[in-house]
Design brief:
By secondary structure, the protein is of the alpha/beta class. It is built from 9 helices and 15 strands. α1 packs parallel to α9. The longest helix is centred in the middle third of the chain and has 12 residues. It binds magnesium ion (MG).
Amino acid sequence: MTATDRPVVCLDLDGVVWRGDEPIPGAADAVRRLRTAGVPVGFMSNNSSMPVAEVVAKLARFGIEAGPEQVLTSARAAADLLTTTIAPGSRVHVCAGPGVVEALGAAGFEPVRDGPAAAVVVGFHRDFDFAALDRAARVVRTGAAFVATNLDPTYPSHEGLLPGAGSIVAAVATAGGRSPEVAGKPFAPAAAMVHHRLGPTGVMVGDRPTTDGDFAVRLGWPFALVLSGVCVPVPGPGEEPVPEPAPPYLADDLAALVPRLVADLGP
Ligand SMILES: [Mg+2]
């Protein structure tokens, strides 16, 4: 899909299409119904660690066909942002997962794990440790461009609540002595990427009011909140309440949301 003048439905992934490694029932059929009605569908995730090909393969496993150009991540937003701030081919220090390495390479940068660099990108990775913190903070202190993929403090998994990218970013920012520019939802670089790569108008569908809802505001699009993720009537740790007033679209899940999206966005 290239950017289109037709209104787009932009789907968050975790909590909308899948929950961890389980598909959310009805999501694949919902995407099919949107496309059959002529509504273009794209995907925007703050998960920066999975390479795009892995996201495409996971979607396919759950019955959803998507081209790599339809799959946007905070890693791609970070790489897009750097194309406007540092020279092509620059060394970029990666304190993040494989998705960031892939996105930087695709944008023409040289991802490195050590030594001098024009920029530092910090994102979620499970092998973060003291040595990685030390290396990243040293590059931040040189005055290099400092980009965080996203600031999500935690995320829910089958192991319970895990530290998110924001926890790692906080460590690097503290040791490095300054704050990063943030690329992912709900910040401006991700909005510029969605407008550029998916289209100027649409609806943002997500499960997290503080990221997806604020991102919809940033996009200038209506927010469609689904209750299949972290937003629940009685929130616990890492969960969020349904905002008051409720967003323009509110549904139990993507399948329940589709009839209204088709009525409002279809031809
Ligand atoms: Mg989500």
